[in-house]
């Protein structure tokens, strides 16, 4: 079972926006040393929207190679084109990913039946464990609990990243879905409570910056130790807010750069504004993250 602190890994880049694979290798090692439980390669935070297909698959392959089986690697392979998502998922499977994360189709605005058929088609085309990803704030497409539950009965769809921050949805999906269906938070600010109430972890932006604390918080919350989990989450609360002070992944790319992992970001995203730097510095200090 994949559970705990799952980092939505940034993709390190040089100042010109090219892939910095050496920094990526070091970043993967940092996460393994710090206790990160699994890695999502090339999700939203990994700038999947601006990597071409070959770059996308090269990053997945590099992470798989560097991890070398020590923790699970989940490849972001979602698309608003069902055919493209099938192809990316197939390539991630061939590169050795342990599972795939598939965002709901953005821009198209499909119906709930369209969402069901989209994910069912991908699952039936590629025999790899797949995790649904619902983030309506970005996609303008909301997978309702009934649809997630319906998809939970497709054999290789193992869970969902629910990023609305609505804890009522956690309970509704748990109630309706197949026993053993895994629920992951996609909202760092509510992830602690999400895990205390039955979630199995978080696919996290904050974990890029404070992986050790995120691992400890998730472990405590999943085991039901509310007091310890909340105490650790208190140290992380500043990061949960500061890393979204501008559009993700702008703030976390700045933080990763300050920690020595890459320098660049790709248009249409821009570098962090000067006004936001002190806010992130203060949050990193609160979490005892060296710059």
From TrEMBL:
Places the protein is found: Cytoplasm
GO cellular component, one term: cytosol
A GO biological-process term: diaminopimelate biosynthetic process
Superkingdom, taxonomy of origin: Bacteria
Pathway: Amino-acid biosynthesis; L-lysine biosynthesis via DAP pathway; (S)-tetrahydrodipicolinate from L-aspartate: step 3/4
Protein family according to the UniProt entry: Belongs to the DapA family.
Role this protein plays: Catalyzes the condensation of (S)-aspartate-beta-semialdehyde [(S)-ASA] and pyruvate to 4-hydroxy-tetrahydrodipicolinate (HTPA).
Protein name per the record: 4-hydroxy-tetrahydrodipicolinate synthase
Annotated gene: dapA
């Amino acid at each position: 079972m994949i559970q705990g602190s799952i980092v939505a890994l940034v993709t390190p880049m040089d100042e010109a926006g090219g892939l910095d694979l050496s920094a990526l290798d070091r970043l993967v090692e940092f996460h393994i040393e710090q206790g990160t439980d699994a890695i999502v390669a090339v999700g939203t935070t990994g700038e999947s929207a601006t990597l071409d297909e070959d770059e996308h698959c090269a990053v997945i392959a590099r992470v798989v190679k560097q991890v070398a089986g020590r923790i699970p690697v989940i490849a972001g392979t979602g698309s608003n084109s069902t055919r493209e998502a099938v192809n990316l998922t197939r390539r991630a499977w061939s590169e050795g990913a342990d599972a795939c994360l598939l965002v709901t189709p953005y821009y198209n605005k499909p119906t709930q039946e369209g969402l069901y058929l989209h994910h069912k088609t991908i699952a039936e085309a590629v025999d790899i464990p797949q995790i649904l990803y619902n983030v309506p704030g970005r996609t303008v497409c909301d997978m309702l609990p009934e649809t997630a539950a319906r998809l939970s009965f497709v054999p290789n769809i193992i869970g969902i990243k629910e990023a609305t921050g609505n804890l009522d949805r956690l309970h509704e999906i748990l109630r309706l879905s197949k026993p053993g269906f895994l629920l992951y938070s996609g909202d760092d600010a509510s992830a602690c409570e999400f895990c205390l109430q039955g979630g199995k972890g978080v696919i996290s932006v904050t974990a890029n910056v404070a992986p050790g604390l995120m691992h400890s918080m998730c472990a405590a919350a999943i085991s039901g130790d509310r007091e310890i989990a909340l105490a650790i989450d208190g140290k992380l609360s500043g990061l949960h807010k500061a890393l979204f002070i501008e559009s993700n992944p702008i703030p976390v790319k700045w933080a990763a750069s300050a920690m020595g992992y890459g320098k660049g970001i790709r248009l249409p995203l821009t570098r962090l504004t000067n006004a936001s730097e002190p806010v992130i510095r203060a949050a990193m200090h609160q979490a005892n993250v060296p710059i």
